[in-house]
Amino acid sequence: MFTVFTRTLILYAVSVLAIRLMGKRQVGQLQPYEFVLALMIAELAAAPMENVGTPLLYGIVPILGMMLLHGLATLLSVKSTWFRRLLSGGPSVVIRRGVIQYDEMRRMCYTTTDLMEELRAQGYLNVADVCTAILETSGKLSVFPHGNKRPVTPEDMGISVSYEGIPQTLVVDGRVQKDHLKTCGLTESWLMDRLKPIGYSDPRDVLLASLDTQGRLFVQGKRDGDKMHLLQAMDENKVGW
């Protein structure tokens, strides 16, 4: 029993490593050849798990071989447009200028029901609101409404907006994120100078503290009844990330 458990842990670790090496994007949206690779990795890992008599290397070596092929296919896809289209195909326009492209949908085996379901998932109840819809190689549908149906933007209103970048988490579950402080060009003493006035003398009492690109510090404590604090912690013009 212990042998089976150990073999399962090893194969699980190798399989997770293989999927991670495919990159974060592939976990959420697989290209056709990557989907086949994921299925084969699962099958190759299952055989040695089920049969103790099968050498462990019979599962590990093929998985590593598949990852080598994946790396080669990815490299060729980057180098060659023809090879990339051969493996992954290309995007297909299923709605053009508000008109459903029936022939293209039929070629892609994409039904009207599929189209309407995806439009609803994107927040469009009426197909008449859609100007362009593109079926991507990953199987996802990219939808673009008619100009008079899209939300109003600050540019439409002639309003100038400030830069909005990724907020930096400075404290997570009571742990100071030193790398993020360094990215912001700040120190732990700077952080404590902002936390103490709102009742946190120890960062271990803080559930989350994040700093946005407008210089606003969001702080939430761990204690029951702790309020959310939002304060202007630094000059927006001095934000450098």
**Over all CA atoms, what is the radius of gyration?**
26 Å
User: Strand percentage, roughly?
Assistant: 15-25%
- Count of DSSP helices? 9
Shape: flat
DSSP strand tally: 9
Would you identify the regions where 5 or more consecutive residues have pLDDT less than 50?
Answer: 24-28
How many domains, in number, for the residues? 3
Class computed from helices, strands and strand pairing: alpha+beta
Brief summary of the model shown:
The chain is an alpha+beta fold.
Summary tags:
241 residues; alpha+beta; CRO Repressor; 3 domains; five-stranded antiparallel β-sheet; four-stranded antiparallel β-sheet; 9 helices; 9 strands; 44% helix; flat
How does this structure look, described?
The chain is of the alpha+beta class. It folds into three domains: 2-86, no CATH class; 92-149, bsu07140 like domains (CRO Repressor); 168-238, CRO Repressor, CATH 3.30.240.20. It contains nine helices and nine strands. The protein has helices at 2-21, 24-28, 32-50, 57-79, 81-88, 102-107, 112-121, 178-184, 188-195, and strands at 92-96, 99-100, 130-135, 141-145, 168-172, 175-176, 206-211, 216-221, 228-232. The strands form two sheets. The chain has a five-stranded antiparallel beta sheet. Strands 2-1-3-4 form a four-stranded antiparallel beta sheet. Strand 7 (206-211) and strand 8 form a beta hairpin. The model is unreliable at 24-28 (pLDDT under 50).
Helix and strand layout, with pairings?
Blueprint: H1 2-21, H2 24-28, H3 32-50, H4 57-79, H5 81-88, E1 92-96, E2 99-100, H6 102-107, H7 112-121, E3 130-135, E4 141-145, E5 168-172, E6 175-176, H8 178-184, H9 188-195, E7 206-211, E8 216-221, E9 228-232
Antiparallel strand pairs: 1-2, 1-3, 3-4, 5-6, 5-7, 7-8, 8-9
Helix pairs in contact: 1-3, 1-4, 3-4, 4-5
